[in-house]
Amino acid sequence: MALSDRDRAILDFEQGWWLDSGTKGAAIRARLDLSASRYRELLYALADEPEAMAIDPLVVRRVRRIRDRNRKARFEGRSASEPPRR
């Protein structure tokens, strides 16, 4: 699958969203015309695409780490920001 223009825009946004003023959610809405939850769904799916890895491996690896940490936290019934239980 070749990445669409929207896919590339999502990767570009994730690479440097903190350079925009305001919140990430507001920047997502303004630049991509997506809700934050839809953006996250698309970003997480995009992280599994080999083409995305070829274009921006640092962003893809970071997104995968965040996604996996959040999934593990949900499974364990804790917040992603809490330390893991021992």
Brief account:
By secondary structure, this protein is mainly α. It has helices spanning 5-16, 24-32, 36-46, 50-55, 57-76.
In total, the number of strands is 0
% residues in beta strands: under 5%
Shape: globular
Helix content: 55-70%
Order of helices and strands: HHHHH
Q: Largest sheet, described in full? A: none
Which secondary-structure class do the elements indicate?
A: mainly alpha
* Ends apart, CA distance between termini: 41 Å
Please tally the helical runs, counting DSSP H or I stretches of 4 or more residues. Answer: 5
Residue windows where pLDDT falls under 50 for at least 5 positions: none
Overall radius of gyration:
14 Å
The overall pLDDT average reads 88
Account of the protein in words:
With 86 residues, the chain is an all-alpha fold. Helices cover 67% and strands 0% of the residues. It has five helices and no strands. The radius of gyration is 14 Å and the shape is globular. 13% of the residues are buried.
